[in-house]
Structures are given as structure tokens and as C-alpha cells.
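Hi everyone,

Forwarding the result from last night's run.
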Amino acid sequence: SAATGFRSGNWNGGAYSSPAGIRVPVGPETLASYELGLKSEWFNRRLRANLSGFYSDYEDLQVSVFANSTQMQLNAANAEIFGAEAELAAVPLPGLTARLALGWMPTAKYVDFNDGRGVDLSGNRMILAPEVTATVALDCVYPITTGWMVSAE
């Protein structure tokens, strides 16, 4: 898939302690996102495997920074993310599903980012973008009467 999107610009209304900061506009951010993947099912839908690789290219990414004890939003110029995800789900018994998911983002960095105070943060890893993520889950659904089920995750 290939997609584009944007987040509209705004004003720093949260910078209430700095009248000058409120007047600083934040431009819109744009995103170009690309993903290539594979979804598969085997053994009469009892085993499912999904794989994907992705690339996201942000321009004018909106970020929050602190300047003079005031939280401000700025456009961080450019950022990019490369990564891959894998998911495996198995249904060993009716009503029981085991899942394992792994995510890997070796690159999630600010390509060009000045924090508004003259500090160049280009090349730093983006916040809230861990390099590795993992999820393990077990779901159980048990029918107790017609139309009623108990589930546990």
C-alpha cells in the first residue's frame, strides 16, 4: 500500500504562560507511508502468519518541546521510520487462540530537527518509537448457553 496524510496546523494555545508563544503558529505535518506485506492461513485457518515491512516519511512533523518552562509545539522538519512486523496466531483447540507478534524499527529518527532553542536534534531517535516490541496473548472463548459466552484474554 501507499498512502499520504496530514495533520492540520494549529496555534500554541497550550502555551498559556507565554503570550508570545501563543502567537507562534505550527504548520501542518504531512506523511507519505509505504507498506508491503503478506497474510497467510494454513491448516484450515488454524494457523495464521502475517509479515510486513514499512517506511514512513514525515515532513514538518509536529513535536512538543519545553522552552522557558512553557510547552510549545514546533515543526520538527523531517523524520523517517523503517521497520518490519510479524504476527503468528494459532488455534490449537476450538475457542483457544495463542498469538505472538514482534515489531522491529531499526530506524525511527529525526532527519532534520532544531528544537527552537538552537539545539540540533537531527539524527536522534523519535520519542515513543521503541526499536523492538513484542506481544504474547492467549484468548479463550467458551460458550455457556445459546448466545452467551465467557471470554478471557
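The mean pLDDT is 89.

Cheers,
N.
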